[in-house]
Amino acid sequence: MNQQAMIAAAAASLMSLTLMSAPAQAAEEKEKCFGIAKAGQNDCASISGVHSCAGQSKVDMDKMEWKYVAKGTCKGMKGATLDEVKNMKKG
Fold first, then answer.
1. How far apart are alpha carbons 64 and 52 in whole angstroms?
2. What pLDDT, on a 0 to 100 scale, did the predictor assign at position 69?
3. Domains of the chain, residue spans
4. Per-residue pLDDT tens digits for 2-41
5. Shortest CA distance to 44 belongs to which of 14, 19, 66?
6. Where are the alpha helices (DSSP H) in 29-91?
7. Please, where are the H alpha helices in 29-75?
8. Helix, strand, or coil here: 8?
9. Largest Cα–Cα distance in the chain?
10. DSSP for residue 77
11. Residue 64: CB atoms within 10 Å
């Protein structure tokens, strides 16, 4: 294998490793934000147990429904964290 082909193969390997690690980074930079999802636009199951799948919320801004948002942006959207929602349910 000539030097140019080896460099190209090494570059391709590095690029594939970078692309494979991107989803893990993206997941770390997001958080669940409750009370901001519009009807039918929630990301997963309701914390109240009403349904167990994404896109099944029935009303806008239900406090038991959530969406993933960039970490640190939930408060600015007038949303609540999981801990805050759990505390609301207790009190």
1. 12
2. 97
3. 3-90
4. 888 777 776 677 676 666 655 655 557 999 999 999 999 9
5. 66
6. 82-90
7. none
8. helix
9. 70
10. G
11. 19
